[in-house]
Amino acid sequence: VGLVHLLSASATAAAQAARAADLAALAGADAARGLTSEDPCTLAEEVAAANGAQLSSCSVGGEFDTEVTVEVSRDLLEVSPLNPSWLPLPEIPASGDSRAGPPEALE
């Protein structure tokens, strides 16, 4: 049962990290395009945090000025409802990365 629980928590954390990375990259790209007045990486960090993740890296630019690449991570054990607080377990990170930019970036 423990292994199944760990695998389930791992899959959940990975999906949540991927979702947070996608949303953070999209928000950062919107800011890079001038749709908001915030700094793209500051906004990406806020969006990642709002989705339970921590921004590990953020870069603006690349082939296009409005392209934003982010990497986020979250602790797998935060996802697990069965994690006993009295049992000192190490942090197990789940990470996701994403890139967002103008449609031309896909060509």
Brief summary of the model shown:
The protein is 43% helix and 21% strand. The protein is of the alpha+beta class. It is elongated.
Q: Which keywords apply here?
A:
3-stranded antiparallel beta sheet, elongated, 107 residues
Descriptive account of the structure:
There is one protein chain. The protein is an alpha+beta fold and 107 residues long. The chain is built from 3 helices and 3 strands; from the N terminus they run ααββαβ. It has helices at 2-32, 40-50, 76-79; strands at residues 54-60, 68-75, 93-100. It has a 3-stranded antiparallel sheet. A hairpin with a 7-residue loop joins strand 1 (54-60) and strand 2. Helix 1 (2-32) packs antiparallel against helix 2. It is elongated.
pLDDT < 50 stretches: none
Residues in helices, as a percent range: 40-55%
What are the secondary-structure elements, in order, as H or E? HHEEHE
Identify the overall geometry.
Answer: elongated
N/C terminus separation: 46 Å
Topology readout:
Elements (H helix, E strand, L loop, with lengths): L1 H31 L7 H11 L3 E7 L7 E8 H4 L13 E8 L7
Antiparallel strand pairs: 1-2, 2-3
Helix pairs in contact: 1-2
